[in-house]
Amino acid sequence: MKESKRKLQLLMLLSFFTWSTVPLLYAFIPVYFKNVGFNDLKIGILTSLGPLCCILVQPFIGVRVDRARSKNAILMLLYSGVAISITLTMFSTSFYYLLAIGLVLAVFQSAMVSVSETITLEHLENTKWDYGIVRACGTIGYALLAVLLGYLIKVHDKSIFVVTALTTLACILIMLGIPRVKGHQSDGQRVSFTKLFQSPQLMVYLFFNMTIQISLGFFSSFFPIYLKDMGGGSLLGITLFITAASELPFLFNAQKLVNKLGVPKLLVLSMVLMSVRLLLLSQITNPYWTLPVNVLHGGTFIVFTYSLATFINKEAPKELRATGQTFNSVLGMGIGRMLGSILGGGLSQTFGLRQTFLITFLFNFVAVGIFGFILWKMAKKPTAVASDEKAC
After folding, report:
1. What is the distance between the alpha carbons of residues 246 and 83, in angstroms, rounded to a whole number?
2. 43 with 33: CB under 8 angstroms?
3. What is the pTM of this model?
4. Which CATH superfamily is domain 2-181+195-391 in?
5. Which residues contact 42 (CB under 8 A, 6 or more apart)?
6. Does the pLDDT value for residue 392 go beyond 50?
7. How confident is the model at residue 385 (pLDDT cuts 50, 70, 90)?
8. Concatenated DSSP letters for 142-203?
9. Which of 156, 221, 293, 334 lies in disulfide reach of 47, CB 3.0 to 4.6 Å?
10. How many angstroms separate the first and last alpha carbons of the chain?
11. Residue range 253-300, pLDDT digits in tens
């Protein structure tokens, strides 16, 4: 019992420090790039590197993790690469230097969270511990680091890289105490990744994730700049704290909500809330109004990431769990976020950020109708219903 509790504590710490690296990678780097004089298009290109590497690198990493004798060793390698790359980022403000270092950082960072979540879910399987509690620690880590980095970027902007590199180093040290997890194909048995495509419901969910991540790709790349342009640059840290803290009510009740409402309804609801959030942000002129509006975040990102992570862990063949998680990340954090960053940068250059928020709302609104209809049709089929009940 003591060993099980200690393992849970280590997983909670790992989640805390893993998600502590995310505020820099997705929120403060665009502000740093703006501070050194890059325009929106260049920022869009630089922030699209992470999603691009998700597409190119994650499938390979996912396969290697499922076939590894130690999933832990691969994750530690990813953490090491992230720590080194983040440290190197602060040594030059040349666009091409940052492009090169950003590419290296993106290679290691692209699968870091998905592999960490895979290992966590494997350890929690067949225990009484709820994944939502562990993931809540990640949210707390994100929230606290967001406030700290929000302060540091105003005082000495390059210090944000030092702090984030240290949180990544903490992840490496924590991994030394977490029991090894073997890949389920490490014994030489090979299972084709095409088996993932045999679940129509999983495919719909994955493409749903990709679609909503287009909106989030634009939001994460350009909301910090939008806030700064409104005169609310000093509010970024507290805004990110609020968005992260808003996830906690869902995480503490996640499994109950999944059991009661089911994955399809939760996914549609999250997209509706995302649409409302984008519409409100497109109309705001006072930066302080972004604080209550961003409370809606608690019903968006965390809802579909939690639902999909647990669904894949239950429904995918055990030999393909890491591959399934990374494939989900390829479509969402890769293709979706890259499209959001690049298209968002181009549209912002042409129409301005405010109008681009409105355009993104319209895109999201149409997507709600399309996916809502698809999921409604699938729910009418007995096989789909049965599969959904199994997932919940």
Report:
1. 28
2. yes
3. 0.74
4. MFS general substrate transporter like domains (1.20.1250.20)
5. 33, 95
6. no
7. very low
8. HHHHHHHHHHHHHH-TTHHHHHHHHHHHHHHHHHTTSPP---TTTTS----GGGGGG-HHHH
9. 221
10. 28
11. 888 898 888 888 898 899 999 999 999 999 999 999 999 999 999 999
The structure tokens 């992570």 sit at 309
Collapsed DSSP state (helix, strand, coil) of residue 317: coil
Backbone angles phi, psi at 124, to 5 degrees: -80, -15
User: What is the amino acid identity at position 339?
Assistant: L
Are 225 and 340 a contacting pair, CB within 8 Å?
no
Q: Establish how many alpha carbons lie within 13 A of residue 355's alpha carbon, considering only the half-sphere containing its beta carbon.
A: 8
- Sequence-distant (6+) residues with CB within 8 A of 156 are none
For the CA atoms of 300, 306, 309, 311, the dihedral, rounded to the nearest 10 degrees, stands at -100
Q: Degrees (nearest 5) of the Cα angle 88, 91, 97?
A: 80
Residue 73 tokens, joined:
């060793």
**Pairwise CA distance, residues 282 & 168, whole Å:** 35
Tell me the two tokens of residue 213: 């991540």
pLDDT (tens digit, 9 = 90+) per residue, 147-182?
A: 888 888 888 888 999 999 999 999 999 999 998 888
Q: Which of 29, 358, 55, 330 is nearest to 215 (CA)?
A: 358
